[in-house]
Every structure is written in structure tokens, then in C-alpha cells.
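Thread: sanity check for a docking pose with zinc ion

Original post by kr_44:
Hi all, I'm comparing my docking run against an independent structure prediction. Below are the sequence and the ligand SMILES. Could someone generate the full complex and paste the C-alpha cells? I mainly care about where the ligand ends up relative to the chain.
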Amino acid sequence: METIKLDRSASEAVDDYWEYRRIVGDDDGGKLFTPKQYEEYKKKVIPQRMENRLYVSFGVPGGIDCKLIGPETLCFCAHRYKQHKTDFKVVPSERPLALPCPVRGCLCVAYQYVPRIGPNQVRCRCKHLPEDHSEATGHLCNKCHSCSGYHSPYTCGCGQPSSAHQTLIETKQEREARGRPTGRDVPNAAMGGLTGFSSLLDGYLALEACSSDPGREDGSQQRHSGSGIKKTSPQTSHSPHCKREAHQH
Ligand SMILES: [Zn+2]
Ligand SMILES: [Zn+2]
Ligand SMILES: [Zn+2]
Ligand SMILES: [Zn+2]
Ligand SMILES: [Zn+2]
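Reply from moderator J.T.:
Ran it for you. Here is the predicted complex with zinc ion included:
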């Protein structure tokens, strides 16, 4: 089998680039830091990140973590977790902890995970998509007046309705107190709830992709559920966990 050979310095440059991306995320505003800026950034941000990492999960209080949020996971506001404020010099003391979205023009004040069925959004009881609702607190519908705020009819793989779930943002101490894994300390930006490779494989995504959806309009992509998760975990696209089709209506 042929393998593409990069000479050592080229492959090191690629590794350096990915390390840069994992650490800096979007903090460079799309313009690569100079080596000096990068060193300064690392000196300032990494110790703070090791100290103040926040863990993000989605679940029913007291239950399992149905979904662990990673850097690419979308918020209700349609921006990714990594686009929200995730680094703190001092973690605010109020709970629930709200991570606002600093993207210009976005009214999101708190990162909030919204379950999807593979790549598809789940329509509200009012029949409109999440994106038809305001990202501001209350999530009122922009398309109708009968809606009192986005409410997903989706039932999670854990058997509980979506509405019983919450997006939980917690410190390492808080997560340890709940007896949940916290992984090892990493310098990467916006790791959210990912604490190891098992965060991606542990059945949460598989459950999510395989569980039933009363609001679903198009079943054709269900078997290829990898499309929504391929980016982070190609291995799950033919998941052996997909045995839950009995739930299908
Ligand atoms: Zn946003
Ligand atoms: Zn948001
Ligand atoms: Zn509506
Ligand atoms: Zn609605
Ligand atoms: Zn659940």
C-alpha cells in the first residue's frame, strides 16, 4: 500500500498547526498569531485553562450524561461551543453558569445544547425549526404567535423528554463531586465535556442517532447517521449500538 510521505519538517509543521488550532481555537480572530504572540497567548491562557476548565454535558438532573458537548457542538443560537465564552480568569460563582456567545449580533446569553436527529433539527411543538425562534432567553418564535418558546417534542435515548434535560456547565470540582470523569488536564480550547476518546464512543452519540423521533419528517438518512457526527468520530458511523430501531414509529 502506498502511503503519502511528508518529509519530517513538513509533518512537524502540520502537527504544529493542529496543535495551534486546538490551543488557540478561534481566539486569533482568523489571523494567525505571530510566534511571539502565540507564546504569550499560551503563557497567559494555558495555566488558566488547566485551573478553570469547564465541563459541559446534557442530561436529566441526577441521570446519565446523555451527550457530552465538544468544541464543535452547536448551540441553540447555531454557533459552536468553541465560539462561546469558555475561558475565565475567575469562574463566576453564580449557578447555573451561563456561557454567552460573543459572535457579533448574536443574542445568546447561555450555551444551550439542542438535540438533533443526525443532521436534522427537531421542530418545535409550533412546527417551526429552532432557527425560527429567537436565540435570546425564552426562545420565542419569530414565525408564529401561538408559541410560548421553543419546546422540542423529542424523546432522548434515555427515555426522558428533551424538556426534562438541561445543559449543565460545571467546574472540575463540581463534576468530580458528581462522580463523573474529568479526564486529564489538557491545554486545548473549548473541550467542553470531552474527557477522552470514550466520550465520543460511549454510546451517547449512538443512542442519539438511533433513538426515535416523533417529529421526524425524513427517515432516509437514519441509517447513515454518521453524517452528523463524522467530524469528531468517524468510527461511530457504522455503530454497533444501532439496535434501537424497535423505537421507530
Ligand atoms: Zn451565538
Ligand atoms: Zn449560543
Ligand atoms: Zn412557531
Ligand atoms: Zn415554537
Ligand atoms: Zn437523555
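The pocket of zinc ion (ligand 2) is lined by residues 75-77, 79, 84, 101, 108, 111 (CB under 6 Å). Hope that helps with the comparison, let us know if your pose agrees.
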